[in-house]
Write a structure and sequence with these properties.
single chain; about 350 residues; alpha/beta; Rossmann fold; 5-stranded parallel sheet; 11 strands; globular
Length: about 350
């Protein structure tokens, strides 16, 4: 398992899930691996009675996680909604891992996701040779979850076209999936549910129909409220990722994380952190996910082409790439930001020069 680039949540945090299961004395819904109390503890972190520390997977409002978990105990599906980079996919995966111990029943939403990917398809060689039969069915993750009482994750639901989205309505309403070709239906086992993620900021978004929206309980995940909260999220995610690719985390990394997060928050808010300078808006969404990517890219440069310590030159390329999506509008806004906000700051001259060199 050590050679795997990215483990599933239930593999990466297997020890924590095992300890929670041993200590869990609360009531569990049918087919749940952990109780709702233990699931929220796994997500938010805490210290168990035996002294074992559970690391937080979500840093934010605990009540939001309680609402999300409570939704899954009912027959309502859960929709995690918010801006890009607000940890929707991260929360979805960890929720599923804690509830069922299996986060792999995933449908990735794209503009090309078909109805077959959500419901079922056919093995056409077998279909032609033997005719319609259950053996010729190619089951989807959704159908597997219905049969086994598990949770299906649907990522980027609003990227799927509206007519394909609406194939979920019958499943979410009736908890059955008709297979008219075989004159049969698949009925959901207790424990089955759906967690979907969606945002309304990306290009190519397809709005959910009102009929489909009614089948979900929506939990909106906000961006990190404070600077410290966002720095903590980035640091924890980078720390959890870098051991898999054998990159060291040094004290100097925190300094660069703070500068990256400061820049991203100012660009998102359209004003400098001291409130004195108004900043032009950029076309992209500089989120926590992009901040993590910039730090990881910088660590790779520092490790393989530097002295192993993350510095301004290492993060500059990733910063410019994350911010300047439109080569005209974003470049103008970014250069103005460098001159009016970054350049005057004490101890930021190195970052100003590095970013200016790459941008020009």
């Amino acid at each position: 398992m050590s050679s795997i680039l990215r483990q599933h949540a239930e593999q990466q945090f297997a020890e924590e899930l095992h300890e929670l299961k041993k200590q869990d004395t609360h009531q569990k819904p049918e087919n749940w691996a952990l109780s709702p109390w233990a699931v929220v503890t796994y997500l938010m972190g805490g210290k168990l009675k035996n002294g074992v520390l559970i690391t937080p997977k979500y840093i934010g409002n605990k009540r939001l996680m309680e609402i999300a978990v409570a939704t899954l105990t009912t027959d309502r599906a859960l929709l995690l909604y918010g801006l890009p980079g607000t940890a929707k996919s991260w929360v979805s995966e960890h929720l599923t891992a804690a509830v069922t111990g299996d986060s792999t029943l995933l449908i990735q939403g794209t503009a090309g996701t078909s109805e077959e990917a959500i419901r079922y398809g056919w093995n056409y060689a077998r279909l032609l040779a033997e005719g319609p039969s259950e053996k010729a069915l190619v089951v989807s993750p959704l159908m597997i979850a219905m049969k086994t009482g598990k949770i299906t994750r649907i990522e980027e639901l609003t990227r799927i076209t509206a007519d394909v989205q609406d194939t979920l309505i019958t499943v979410l309403s009736e908890k059955t999936m008709p297979v008219p070709e075989l004159n049969m239906e698949v009925q959901a086992v207790r424990g089955f549910n759906v967690i979907a993620t969606a945002n309304n900021r990306d290009k190519g978004v397809n709005e959910l129909s009102s009929a489909l929206k009614r089948r979900f309980n929506t939990v909106i995940l906000p961006p990190p409220e404070t600077m410290e909260e966002e720095v903590d999220i980035v640091q924890r995610r980078v720390t959890s990722i870098t051991p898999n690719i054998k990159m060291p985390i040094e004290e100097s990394t925190l300094k660069e994380i703070r500068r990256i997060v400061t820049i991203f928050r100012e660009l998102r808010n359209g004003v400098s952190s001291d409130g004195k300078t108004k900043i032009k808006q950029i076309t992209g969404t500089v989120s926590v996910a992009e901040a993590i990517s910039v730090v990881n890219s910088g660590l790779a440069l520092a490790t393989y082409f530097g002295d192993g310590l993350l510095n301004a030159q290492d993060v500059a390329a990733g910063l410019v790439g994350a911010i300047v999506k439109d080569p005209v509008q974003d470049k103008v806004a970014w250069l103005e930001y460098l001159e009016t906000v970054v350049k005057p700051r004490e101890n930021w001259k190195d970052l100003y020069r590095a970013c200016k060199d790459i941008t020009l």
